[in-house]
Amino acid sequence: MAKNTMETKLPRKLEQKMAIMGEQIKLARLRRNLSIAQVSERATCSPLTINRLEKGSPTVSIGIYARVLYALQLDEDLLLLAKEDSLGHTLQDLSLKRRHRARPM
User: Fold this and answer.
1) How far apart, in Å, are the Cα atoms of 51 and each of 6, 9, 36, 42, 54?
2) pTM of the model
3) 40 and 50 in contact (C-beta within 8 Å)?
């Protein structure tokens, strides 16, 4: 039997972050005085999808997030995803081989 993606559960920490992200998008929409219907029309998706996005549903695709951010003129924020990868840089620095000079005889 196929797995129902609507029941996909995320770790609690990720659920909380998705909810915060949805709330931030909702506040951006409200600050611009736009209705869900207006944003859904501009983002070419259904009002139900916008509603799910604003509630932090994990089943909304990243493409929908991109279109909604574009509709809100916030698409530059997409470039902030994983921008500061301090752990990755640290791991990379640790794996660099250091060359040592030969000791003079």
Assistant:
1) 15, 18, 7, 14, 5
2) 0.78
3) yes
Rounded Cα distance, 68 and 93, in Å: 37
Question: Buried b / exposed e across 80-99, counting CB within 10 Å, b at 16+?
Answer: eeeeeeeeeeeeeeeeeeee
Burial class (CB in 10 A: 0-12, 13-18, 19+), 12: exposed
Q: What angle do CA 23, 73, 50 make, to 5 degrees?
A: 40
Structure tokens, 3: 């797995």
What tens digit of pLDDT does each residue of 43-79 get?
Answer: 999 999 999 999 999 999 999 999 999 999 999 999 9
